[in-house]
Description:
Its EC number is 2.7.13.3. By secondary structure, the chain is of the alpha+beta class.
Amino acid sequence: xxxxxxxxxxGLVISGLFLVVLLFLGVAVDRMFTSFYYANMRTETEExxxxxxxxxxxxxxxxxxxxxxxxxxxxxxxxxVRRDGNVMMHSGVQDPGCxxxxxxxxxxxxxxxxxxxxxxxxxxxxxxxxxxxxVVKEGKVVxxxxxxxxxxxxxxxxxxVRKLLILSGIGAFLLALGxxxxxxxxxxxxxxxxxxxxxxxxAGELETRVDIGSKDEMGxxxxxxxxxxxxxxxxxxxxxxxxxxxxxxxxxxxxYLEGYANVVKERLYETDEEKDxxxxxxxxxxxxxxxxxxxxxxxxxxEEGKISLEPEWVDLAELTEQAVEKTKLKAGNKSLELQFTVxxxxxxxxTDGARMEQIVLNLLENAIRYTERGTVxxxxxxxxxxxxxxxxxxxxxxxxxxxPFIFERFYRVEKSRSRSHGGTGLGLSIVHKLTGLLGGKITxxxxxxxxxxxxxxxxxxxxxxxxxx
Length: 469
Ligand SMILES: Nc1ncnc2c1ncn2[C@@H]1O[C@H](COP(=O)(O)OP(=O)(O)OP(=O)(O)O)[C@@H](O)[C@H]1O
Ligand SMILES: [Mg+2]
């Protein structure tokens, strides 16, 4: 039961609620019956009183004896009371033992022609309905006739009704308790199942899945837990892969650094040129690590959403031209032709200029790095409300089956070939993330041995016109 707390709580709440409702209902029904029986008995007694008073009024001969028989037959008591309160005649079955039910004020009222009726409780605890009527002869009230009926029979009937009410209440309560228990089981079982599964997932068993097929909220919760497990699994795998990649990326340059630094330290070189060559290698590898650390830092910031953009109105044509200028030297070193063309009417773009330049430079550097001869073509084309930037090269290209992965972290086509080019495989994943952050899309098309073309698409916001007052 310890694990079944929700069932217990639910059971308690519903049973409590049922109990309260049943109690109120029971009291209400009991009241209803009681007042019904009382009203009934009151009218009956009053009717009897009128009946007997009419009999007394027309009394001749042995009316009193007849009335006594009648009274006995109806199970009531008759009292004929004089003006001073003394009983002239008493007959019938009821005898409360004392006459305190005859109150002077009532006798006065009856003698002035009124009727009285009330509930009387004798000192022994017996309860009676009392009804008093005047007996009129020749227009004059001659006596007060009291009829006294015990409530015993009515109380017995009421007790029977009460017993029935209590029994059906207990029955209804037990039924509610049973059905609540079943509902609680029904509700808490999948919850317990999910609790177990989440505990397992938290303990690292990420392959755990909850098997609840229902289409209700429980099913939706189970689905959400399963999705969470899948996400965690993916996250764990990519994190493992990420760390493996980082350590692999760092190990190579560090091995170089260690080896060549040792050669220089132990003076294992023969000429000064040789020493300079080793120092150059050390310098290059140190820069490589720097580059890697910078890129990783940038990516981490982007993934945590900690990168803040500084948008402004940017002349994209000018920005791209400057980026092309910056890479001209590198292209020149490899005797590559670098072309830049603008199509359409240039429109300003509201974006983060520095980030945009980072994207263009990355694509340009890749194009130059992976092209041995030919041309790198940069085309900027403005259409109404949109702009497209294409960076096309005539380089080594990317195999079609590797194209879907090139935006992933550390992904490099043919590891050895890009290592000889000095890449770490982070550039394009940064480009991809930045493009997304700036609200654009990036696509790539490539043919192995023929060249590659990266295309950026951005929507252009209309520039707000300056208001003239
Ligand atoms: N223009 C291109 N032509 C051919 N292959 C390319 C081109 N651009 C990217 N690639 C391939 O995609 C891989 C990923 O590129 P990415 O820019 O992410 O990494 P990188 O250039 O190797 O290193 P980094 O840019 O981090 O210094 C590269 O290793 C390369 O194999
Ligand atoms: Mg690159």
